[in-house]
Design brief:
The chain is of the alpha+beta class. It is built from six helices and ten strands.
Length: 187
């Protein structure tokens, strides 16, 4: 498979389409990132204090520009999740390869941000099923990790259905902060 940072792949099934986030996704994604019910499920661990709660077009545009900057420097990939039924972006998936001195080394770290009306186990399974298998080769990793807090019952149900298991291991941030509530899928 080609370098994900040279040629960002597109994934689709009958329900969803994943492609790199574009500037024109701003208005749809603003509905996601201004959704108070959704933001509590987003993973902002190790993100320099960003809580991903955006309430203005300007702030959403800045986030999209930053995601593109990170892609250009091979930091991470941010895919828009487009619903084929509603013809709109209903969330994003971020993925990157993580090397560290903790358990989460050689890991594809996945962040899933969904609008609250899509935070349902069956929808999450349909979305993640598109990208899990390619993640191992795209990000040269032997496991995938994602965060799900206790209150994210639908997300946890979906992760378990996909073969993820909860780990007590802590992800250690750049500044030594310990983060928990991670689920892992091994290749």
């Amino acid at each position: 498979m080609k370098d994900v940072y040279q040629n960002c792949p597109v994934f689709e099934n009958e329900f969803y389409y994943l492609r790199q986030v574009k500037k024109q996704d701003r208005d749809d994604l603003l509905k996601v990132y201004s959704d108070r019910k959704a933001v509590c499920f987003f993973n902002s661990d190790n993100c320099g204090g960003d809580d991903f709660y955006y309430t203005s077009e300007q702030r959403m545009q800045e986030a999209i520009e930053y995601w593109d900057f990170e892609y250009q420097r091979s930091g991470f990939v941010r895919w828009a999740i487009l619903s084929k039924a509603s013809k709109e972006a209903i969330g994003t998936i971020e993925l990157f390869h993580r090397d560290a001195t903790d358990y989460f080394t050689n890991c594809g770290l996945l962040r899933l941000d969904l609008r609250s009306d899509y935070e349902k186990a069956d929808e999450i399974v349909k979305i993640l099923d598109l990208i899990l298998k390619p993640t191992y080769s795209l990000f040269h990793c032997d496991k995938i990790a994602t965060k799900a807090i206790h209150e994210a019952t639908e997300r946890i149900k979906a992760l378990k259905a996909l073969g993820f298991h909860y780990t007590d291991e802590k992800l250690i941030g750049h500044d030594g902060t310990e983060y928990d509530f991670y689920f892992v899928l091994s290749s």
